[in-house]
Amino acid sequence: MKRAFTAALAAASLSALLLTGCAGQEQHLGFIGTEKAKNIALEESGLFATEVQFTSATLNTKNGIDYYRVAFLSHGEEYEYDIDALTGVTIDDHAGGDVPLVTDADTFAPLELPGETISVSIVPAPQPVEQAPKPAPEPQPEEPLVTDADTFEVVPPPAPESPPAEPASKEEPALPFRPPEDSLVTDADSFIQDHGTGAALPVSEREAKEAALRQAGCAESEVTFAYCRTDSEDGRQIYSIAFSDQAGNRYETEVDAATCEILSYDMDSAAPASGSILPVDKAREIALAQVPGAAAENLLELQTEHDDGRLSYEGAIRFQGTTYEFEIDGYSGAIRSWEVDDPR
């Protein structure tokens, strides 16, 4: 009885050690981590974490590439994604169907051709040709000291020229910064790191979220965030933020990480079209109010559109070299889309 208990205890210790080793190796190699891979898979599918049931999230290696295979179920359908463990790029996806998990157990077997015999001849490498040894250079006679016949002063020979100094070795470029395993970057003391350079961003994650909530007219207690991450777009660092409110409306916002300016904004309204139609003058007033200093002459266009039976106003404003494109709900006056095109 004592021997069986000792064996069970040893097995449990070994399992814990293996699990700890795997997690330590994953962090040491700079992998994005399982949680980051899950968030990327959710973003690719356009679903929220509350809408899915994860069935697996494993780290695999194929053809020298480490990747996470993430699978989950949603509304009776199966989704499966292969995420690069270092870069977070989606390698492959099988979304919206009953897709079996594929293993690579049979894909690396040697190819055998039935009924044929392949012969391989080994050709020896050519032997190097021996060259005759070069004759040793003849010793040069030492140059005698030159004397001055009158003063008997010994004049030393001229000093040989010193060889040119070797150029200083160039420093190896620093390795690129890899984000930590946690997918969401925290804003403790506003030291948010740029995933491309490792430098601190001027705008913290908290400030970016507050700007997105102000644009949507929502309070933080009324929404559920799907993600908030840093991206690079046209050489500019931005925050990509997505959340939904209690009414089911979904919001996606891009915030400049240097100035906290709203670069783009989209709202997918869950409410049906109802109520009185918003006057066009009121829609013009709402649009111009988003660009301080802009007047009616800066409004390039304003026209009505019908999308799935819902009225909206679409237009553009050009002010001080920057173009702003917008879409306003034709009933509530809410800004459904906002995009900034700054050529600078």
Question: What this model shows, in words?
Answer:
- The protein is an alpha+beta fold.
- Among the domains are: 78 residues, Nuclear Transport Factor 2, Chain: A; 87 residues, Nuclear Transport Factor 2, Chain: A; 74 residues, Nuclear Transport Factor 2, Chain: A (Roll), CATH 3.10.450.
- 18% of the residues lie in helices and 32% in strands.
- It has 4 helices and 16 strands.
- The strands form 4 sheets. The protein has an 8-stranded antiparallel sheet, with helices on one face. The chain has a 4-stranded antiparallel sheet with strand order 1-2-3-4, with helices on one face.
- The longest helix has 27 residues.
- The radius of gyration is 35 Å and the shape is elongated.
- The N terminus is likely disordered.
Strand order of the largest sheet: 9-10-11-12-16-15-14-13
The CATH topology name of the domain at 184-270 reads Nuclear Transport Factor 2, Chain: A
User: Mean of the pLDDT scores?
Assistant: 75
Strand-residue fraction?
A: 25-35%
User: Helix/strand-derived class?
Assistant: alpha+beta
- Helix-strand string: HHEEEEEEEEHEEEEHEEEE
Cα end-to-end separation = 78 Å
CATH class of the domain at 184-270: Alpha Beta
Number of helices: 4
Taking Cα atoms only, what radius of gyration do you get, to the nearest Å? 35 Å
Shape: elongated
The CATH level-2 architecture of the domain at 184-270 is identified as: Roll
Number of strands: 16
Low-confidence stretches: 1-22, 98-121, 172-192
The major beta sheet can be summarized as: 8 strands, antiparallel
Portion in helices? 10-25%
